Amino acid sequence: MYNLIDGKKVAADVLDKVAHEAQELKSQGKEVTLAVIIVGDDPASRVYVNHKRKDCEKVGIRSLEYALAEDTKQEELMALINELNGREDVDGILCQLPIPKHLDEKAVLKAISPAKDVDAFHPTNVGYIMLGDYTFLPCTPAGVMELLYAYDIPIEGKHCVVVGRSNIVGKPMSMLMLKENATVTVCHSRTRDLASITKQADILVAAVGRAKFITADMVKEGAVVIDVGMNRDEEGKLCGDVDFDSVAPKSSAITPVPGGVGPMTRAMLLENTIRAAT
Ligand code: GUN
Fold it and tell me: Which residues are the active-site residues?
């Protein structure tokens, strides 16, 4: 029988801790504040930003939202970031991605002050992650690690296979597991004979962005399976990168979608915001 990793429950514990810390800071006269920038009207981004606002409300973090028009100019966006960088009452800054194509995403991420970079996307913070010496961790990989810790899943010496090499998830994920003394393999779209590698995983992290991509024949009996995906299946139902129904019985522990990694990503953003304020 496999263990269902309950991201909602672990996230609720993180939120309790964050709420307590926000309250403590408030009693010292410090109102923790997160500024969220959204450019254009991508519907998924709008949903994510709404979640962030509600999450902040829940834990007593003040949130400021800057909704900019689709045709916002680079200079306008940079001016806003500069202003927020300089404001003492703003602790964390996040620019929701993707941003419209005419804008320079790299320049935007670099413009956010590393000390307020609650996404940990600034090259300085990315560098600290490489060195294993960080203030902020990107929210999704940090959330995955919290889940592994919460369920006492040993990492040291294990073979962790990460499928996906994005800057947001795959690359930092592999660094965090390496720091915990795992043997880490990173696979991607050009990997040959993917299944032969994923089958070696003691801990398999799927971050590919393709619905039900990881099937039972790609998973070792007893593996821990972490599903970072957030997709829609043929019927429009929310699903992960893992074909849950066939993979779960083979696993020793697995995250569901929804209710696995997603709530943890949201919770870790708030934890980063507290960290930015202290
Ligand atoms: N778009 C999708 N995921 C993320 C994230 O973690 N941070 C930001 N800023 N944008 C995103």
Answer: 52, 96, 119
What CATH number does residue 187 fall under? 3.40.50.720
d(CA 205, CA 217): 15
- The pLDDT tens digits for 141-193 are 999 999 999 999 999 999 999 999 999 999 999 999 999 999 999 999 999 99
Residue 274 within a domain: no
**Ligand 1 center to 27 CA (angstroms):** 31
pTM, two decimals, is 0.96
Tokens 């990694």 correspond to 261
- Report the amino acid identity of residue 22: A
175, 253: one domain? yes
Do 153 and 230 fall within a single domain?
Answer: yes
> What is the span of the domain harbouring residue 50?
29-113
Contact 164, 209 (CB under 8 A): yes
* Residue ID of nearest Cα to ligand 1 atom 11: 97
272 lines ligand 1 (CB under 6 A): no
- Residue 218 CA to ligand 1 center (angstroms) comes to 28
Task: Please count the structural domains in the chain.
Answer: 2
In angstroms, what is the span from residue 2 Cα to ligand 1's centroid?
31
The gap from C-alpha 272 to its chain's centroid, in whole angstroms, comes to 11
Cβ within 8 Å of residue 105, ≥6 positions away = 97, 98, 99
> Is 174 touching ligand 1 by the criterion CB < 6 Å?
no
- Do 146 and 87 belong to one domain? no
Please give the structure tokens belonging to residue 93.
Answer: 């800054």
